[in-house]
Amino acid sequence: MPSPFHSASFEQLALPLLPSLYSHAFWLSRNHADAEDLVQEAISKALRAFDSFQSGTNFKAWIFRILRNTFLTSRTGIAASRTVFLEDRSDLPDTIDANPTPEEHLIRLDNQAAINRALDDLHPDLREVLLLCDVEELKYKDIALVLDVPIGTVMSRISRARRTLHQQLKLQLGESL
Amino acid sequence: MTQPQVNGHLRQDQISAFIDGELSHSEATEIQQHLADCHSCALRVLSATQLKTATARAAQRFSAPPEALARLTAQLRPQEPKKTARIYSFRSVAWAAMAAALVLAASLIGWRQTRQANTLSAELLDHHLATLSSGASPEVISTDRHTVKPWFQGKLPFSFNLPDALPADTTLKGGDLAYLNGQPAALLLFTIHKHEVSVFLTQRSASPMVTVLPGTQSGFAIRHATTHELRIIAVSDVNPADLEVLVSALVEAQTPR
Ligand SMILES: [Zn+2]
Description:
The complex is a heterodimer.
Chain A: H1 10-14, H2 18-29, H3 32-48, H4 59-72, H5 75-80, H6 102-105, H7 112-121, H8 124-134, H9 140-147, H10 151-173
Chain B: H1 12-19, H2 25-37, H3 39-59, H4 66-76, H5 92-113, H6 119-134, E1 140-141, H7 145-152, E2 170-180, E3 183-192, E4 195-203, E5 216-217, E6 220-226, E7 230-236, H8 240-254
Antiparallel strand pairs in B: 1-2, 2-3, 3-4, 4-7, 5-6, 6-7
Helix pairs in contact in B: 1-3, 2-3, 5-6
């Protein structure tokens, strides 16, 4: 299928993504100055590599992948990678109650502060995949491309991220509805 | 995705894939069939949808400061000579589709940026544009209100009425289920003077937050009304007065007689 971005310039493709790139870079680095540097560097790299961008593929996934790799090789990225490595335990059976009750699954989501905290506390690897899915609205196959992992890993991480958030919220807010 | 479900219930990863729109039509249908019969899993889906929305809201706390965005934009702008993507040749028919895709992408992006200010209207427009762009047929395709209305029965925690007669040059095209603002909604598709209209009906009592909706955004009119039981929201690029007439007709139809 031909790309809808036929002969679109790099600028046309990248400009609308700046706010997204910035906020994602902020979540990776947790720092405004670093976020701006990361986006700036990622843009330079992407521009230099633009000839290798395959027309017809997802530009957003492509440039987010460059942003991520830029982060991983940055000072903060290297420091962050020293934190505990996350095992992808997709081989483990999905835990689910024999008979899930409504009480088990409904939590109060009107407490935004609690949700903010739970997201802050989430393991960076889990948070990253969730942000690409829920905020950037990338498809699983594109997230797999950004993170350079198999699609099955994307699925199990998303599922695990949501389960963790859910449990965190339950702890924070108590079991009461 | 098609492995047997645990204990007859949906697995967590199935629920995730379902709410993320990652399932094929047949897989999604299978899940919807289970949801129609299983209150517990329907609640889990609802809860997961709410969590997804809440996550997006929590993540959008940190947006780019305007100065940083201005610097980054300046970095992008002076590109000499302009680098362009590889050129392919295609038939002229494809051009129209491309132009439409670009316009759509641009308006979606515009909307994403105002999302923090107005999550609900962004969600509405996303839904509306998704309906326009996917070209997919609604779940129930009918111009007959006697077919459309019963289709929703048992699928939603509320019911609604459709007007006996629609305003001039207004046609009912069909309906679908939607989640809006984390709530189950009936999505009704109409055309007014050939303009596509999406109308969302949700339960009023379940509305946790009523966001103030703008009258018009990016060329799309949004009209909002409430009845005793329902919240009715319409979005379209038709002229706002015509949209208002349709909303009034829908409000009128809810009044017991
Ligand atoms: Zn079930």
